[in-house]
Amino acid sequence: MKKPPKSSGRTDPVFDLLARSPHKERLADYLALLKPFDDQGRYLPFEALRYRWAAGLDANLCWALVKRARAAQYINLLPLGEPLQWSKYVQTPLAQKTLSVVDRHTSTAALDYMTSQIGERMHFSYLLNDLIEDEAIASSQLEGAATTTRVAKDMLKHQRQPRTPDERMVLGNYRMMNFAWEQRHEPLSVALIAAIHQVGVEGIDDEQYSPGVFRANDEVVVQDGAGNTVHRPPPAAGLVARLEKLSNWVNLSDGSTLEKNYLHPLIKAITLHFALGYEHPFRDGNGRVARALFYWLMFKNEFAAFRYIAISLLLRNAPVKYGRSYLHTEADELDLTYFIEFQCSVIQRAVLGFTDVYRRTVAYTEDFERWLISSGFFEQLTEKQRAVYQVAKSGVAKEFTANNVAGNFVCSYAEAASALKGLIKLQVFERRKMGREWVYFLRSPLQKCKHGGALLRPHAVTA
Known about the structure:
This protein is mostly helical. Helices cover 54% and strands 6% of the residues.
């Protein structure tokens, strides 16, 4: 990657150069570059901008003008590394739009409203649990886990023991995400960072990961796919002290939105994500911990819907851009705008995808319940049976066991088993033995049942 030239910190020489030949003949072209964004409003790195400047302009001088404009808008975040260097960012149009989307759709209040719109329809809990699994699986795949999404979901839903290191990685991520939720009321500390790592990687390959133990030497580096070293973390000496400073920064009150130093929780969480990746405090598993801490800080700041928003699904589909957002930041004097911009683009898409799923679920629910009532089948089903039946019809889950029904609906095993057996009796479900437990699933719509004709189904409803 072509690194941008270092800025000298002195601004007067830039304008001295503009006043001299041959630059003064192109003065208008140069001064048009005195802005932080390109003509399309994008915050581009040097390696992208240098191909967009008019022919004949001096690239170093062009970059100096862009940097001067950006420096005037920098917001300091926190010092990182050794020696310490201030990280900073510029508030961009994309970031502002993402903050608005996050505030409107992901707060705890917004999630409570969504749940109230669905009311007592318990099938929604199945959908939410499905979304929690998505983040754990995608984060593992992003780190190299070779297991398929279908196999991983089967393991989590049936609560079976993992059979391979890749499955153990998925289960570790799942536990780590739940641990981040459970610890959301705790302040950040070196001990909590270590505990999140231990929960996430213990039992995968303890010799490789050293669960909960910080690296003690400088052998850990980040390499690209070709084996080239692209990031060498700050030295292990002083690592714990730097993590303590990071924790103190995270624990500082952000104050009122009217205060000059106010920092939106999303920007702070993205910065924490970057800082963990930059420090690389563990031998392995750093990316997973960094993403888990992003979620932890969003949970802590009452953005509860992030429990069901799988950022890693989109990061997994753009790993090169994800990696480059780190590299552009490090190459340009810890300007985190590149990393924040990429994360905001991913987060905005993930949040809007979550709200789309919610709206479709509400619409399906209303259609499904109208069909149940008009069919005369409604009165024959208990509340739990209606919920399980709807989950099956909508395709959120295809197989059910008494264990996972009890877990999703927070009821006893006996209640869950009774609901499933009742659906068998009504000839809505059938079952087969898998290992030691019975697995229940929707009967084929072509099979006959005692309600007359083919199995009842809401033809007007699309899953």
